[in-house]
Amino acid sequence: MKYQSQKVALAYFVCAMGLFGIQVLGGLLAGWIYVSPNFLSELLPFNIIRMIHTNALIVWLLLGFFGAAYFLVPEESERELYSVKLAYLQLILLVVGTLGAVGSYLVGIHGGREFLEQPLWVKFGILVAALIFLFNISMTVLAGKKTAITNVLLMGLWLLSLLWVFAFINPENLSLDKMYWWFVVHLWVEATWELVMAAILAFLLLKLTGVDREVVEKWLYVIVATALFSGILGTGHHFYWIGLPGYWQWLGSIFSTFEVVPFFLMMSFAFVMVWKGRKNHPNKAALLWSLGSSTVAFFGAGVWGFLHTLHGVNFYSHGTQITAAHGHLSFYGAYVALNLAIFTYAMPMLRGRAPYNQVLNMVSFWLMTGGMAFMTFVLTFAGTIQTHMQRVVGDYYMEVQDGLSLFYMMRFGAGAAVVIGALLFIYSLLVVRKREVITPGAANPVIGG
Amino acid sequence: MAEFLTKSRARNVFYGGSIFFVVVFIALTVQSHRYVVTTSTAGMPLSEEVVLGKRVWERHSCINCHTLHGEGAYFAPELGNVMTRWGVQDDSEGAYEILDGWMSAQPSGIEGRRQMPHFEITEEEMRGLAEFLRWADQTDTQGWPPKDAG
What we know:
heterodimer, A: 449 residues, mainly alpha, Four Helix Bundle (Hemerythrin (Met), subunit A), Cytochrome C Oxidase, Chain A, 2 domains, 0% strand, B: 150 residues, Cytochrome Bc1 Complex, Chain D, domain 2, two-stranded antiparallel sheet, 5 helices, elongated
């Protein structure tokens, strides 16, 4: 760690991991209700649990992004953060807001737009926190060295914060409500977040592989160009069946097909950089997460997204377990795994230790990734059957669901593996003090990084 | 990567192209907004009852179990066409009665079956909710869903 102010990232990462724990436990509970529907049904209904599951996910990913920005911007800009105090103030606002939202949900106070259920005061709190962040990080970058990584990272974070304004716009017309709702939801995860992801990934690969900055930054611009060129009009794949004009079926199909490209490029980028890199960085777990994230993102967001994005397919598969399968693997690959990569990279430095307990961390990678892959497969099978029985044959929803119980049991098992992996990951970063139990071989010498 | 593609060229393509797509997207959004108001949802007035119903729908976060036009959670049936499925799309009073009957019977308490919670909803709100679901059902959704099952 070169700059003292990078330390604020530690607090962000710890809070993010706390919420990560809550998120996966909420998911496990929701998965159990699919298996045993009477469980907690009067005390804590499914809709509340799902709200906590999705909201905790979004907030912890954002905390991770903010923390990552506070960690990498000083190093890129070659100067201390503009204000450490503002960074902590921002974190306090976000944590109070999140706990306030969870508390409200538990007593039944919530909005009813999916993912944007936060009470109004929490939404304002998030807005204020975002403004503090943008001010703080922009002042840092403006006063320091500007690189492609900070350019792209800042652009992503500025745009995603601006799009948050649409969280406050809720037209009385349902179709308009849905259209503007996607301005937050789609333009976050399929456009602006990709900029943040690509920037963080570029930073990690620069540090882990030692490839020339010029090469890394050229890739970065090409990747984010393909992300926005496909992703902006790709919003159309959400506009097929909600009351918008028919031309979105063609625009959405064509442009969202190209949404595979940035994910394919990010995966290629990661592997090519490692191939070309001369550095043998000691933090192997961070490298595993970086490669794993770009690979799983390609399959989850790219392949599983394309699977049901063409309007002729989506007409039948829209809003089935196919969507759930895609949602889980894409979020895990693109944003969860990437956050865990930067946590794994930064934590040893933030805590002033050598990269330790890598094996435990890598075990957690395989547990989580294996669990998510299995979950994706069973939900895809369930969704295929559901699509056929409900959308082609025309059987009623609950009758079809009753026939899918085996898949939901397997999904619960997969979810349990993910939860164990997540807890193991948190344990390996926060608790364990020992170095790895397996000594690296002689052919794989550990040189300082 | 090819030599003609320098870093600054890649950057310029990124900025220029993004601005182009943002402009196109905004233009299409304006057109779509108009289309929704004048065409696809114009079959039924956006009355006070419908608006009240939307607020009721939101306050109870129905979207975190059900889907509406295919969006939401996948734990409970699609509701964008529920009034058609119940055969009361053209019958305001019938829509209220069947919805009220269904919701006051929840939770069913049947072992092994997904449970819908009990909601405190007044008669006025219940009428609003029924009108809101009829309003959603009349939206031109390009023929979706393929079957009445939702």
